[in-house]
Amino acid sequence: MTSPTAPRAEPRTGQPIHRPMLAAGVMLALAWIAQIVVIFGVGYRGPALYDEQHFHLPTIRSFAEQLPAPDLSDYLVATSPGYHLVMAAVERALALPDQGLRLIGGQFAVLAVVLLAWWFGRRVAWWLAVALAVPIWISPYFFASSVLALPEGAAWLGVFVILMLALRPRVSASQLGLMGLVLVVLVAVRQIHLWAAATIWLVGWLGPNQNPEPDRLVPRFAELQIRKRIPPTVLSVAVTLPAFVLVAYFFRLWDGAVPPTFQTGGAANTIEGAAEHTGFNPATPALVFATFGAFGPFFALGLVGPIRRALAARESSRWLPILFGLVGLMLAVVPATGFDEAAGRWTGLWTVAGRLPTVADRSVLIAALAGIGGVVLGAMLLAVSSRDRLVLLGSLVAFTTAQSANHQSWGRYVNAFVLVVLAMMVALAVGRTQKVRWWVVLGPGVLGFFLLAGTAYRLLG
């Protein structure tokens, strides 16, 4: 038996030393330095600033004036009011200028990316953990929520925490209860993220990792042990009920999914920069797959080895990337995917697609990227464990379904989620092998540079 005072054995050659706190510290330093430079220096430009100045800051200050009984029946934001109420309390107590509200409100985004770096750092070398977190942090709309008074950072914080808890190897009643609590806070900030309830249900059904775990795409019925799964599944459903009650309250208060101003026939079409959000958009799944096609290859580059081993180990697994590629292509050619502002297909990739050829109102770019995205997603899922694969895939389906319920199919709503799923798959896959090659960091590094260019344009352009 090893003495409790004996020094800890060093990892074998080639295995990284995990330093999650170092990864989190580096990410925190980067985020805080950037905040100070942007908020009190160069400033931020672009659509996000317009949204802050014309919608979010006026709502925060209006709520601050109305405290302790703000009117939540209608206001100038299409999301639930949790973030704005917190910031209104800060404004009421401190009477801060715009810069002060931006600095305080931006800490939600900072905490989100620092937690991600810590989570990555528990599985991979600290420098790779930072490299995986940087593209998420520096992507234009996520970064904007760290330097402007916007609710996106707070909402993504809730989403990331639920995903991190869902991917824990063990499942307990306290963990499910914590996930239910986070979900309540999450939907108080952004009601559309009620989809995360499905992730909690899936965690309850799947239970903890089996050791050893059968690595199958579809589990055998005999392995399901349904009787053991029923109690945690029932508990997982129960802990999400408060979130459903809160969203139902908002539905009743607004007589719809968003405040009346942003409903069809509301005042949004008379307000410059506002948009109606009610209604289904069948092109959103294509946008999600196309975003995987745009970002995914940068992350898949580092998983070529694990993907090849997974394909070689089971011949049937070769169909998964092909199947996902066909699904992505189908989602891009069945509905109209050409640029159309009235149909909610504008900004981001839609704008680029509008400058390139379309066939019968189907964008060639979106179709190509969606097909590539499906192949990349299917291949990368092979590199992670069966349980992690199901958690991430189930969360993706739930997220995409929820986003499709928004008439506006905007990249700002999906980019951060796609990036975090890709980064998590890399961390989970590399963590299984404990081998880090230099090219694993190359893809996220190059992508981070491109995203930094987009963010810099909004800072300096």
Characterization of this structure:
This protein is mainly alpha-helical and 461 residues long. It has one domain. It has helices at 20-42, 47-66, 82-94, 98-105, 107-121, 126-138, 140-147, 152-166, 173-189, 196-206, 226-254, 284-300, 304-313, 319-333, 349-354, 364-381, 386-403, 415-433, 438-460; strands spanning 358-359, 362-363. A two-stranded antiparallel ribbon has the order 1-2. Strand 1 (358-359) and strand 2 form a beta hairpin. Helix 2 (47-66) crosses helix 3 (82-94) and helix 5 packs across helix 7 (140-147). It is globular and about 65 Å long. Residues 1-13 have low confidence and may be disordered.
Biggest sheet descriptor: 2 strands, antiparallel
- What is the topology, as strand order, of the major beta sheet? 1-2
Question: Which structural class should the secondary elements be placed in?
Answer: mainly alpha
Counting DSSP E segments of at least 2 residues, the number of strands comes to 2
- Put simply, the count of helices is 19
Mean pLDDT, nearest integer?
91
**Proportion of helical residues:** 55-70%
Task: Categorize the overall geometry.
Answer: globular
- Multimer state: single chain
Low-confidence stretches: 1-13
Euclidean distance between termini CA atoms: 64 Å
What's the SSE pattern? Answer: HHHHHHHHHHHHHHHEEHHHH
Query: Strand portion, in percent?
Result: under 5%
- How many distinct domains? 1
Report Rg.
22 Å
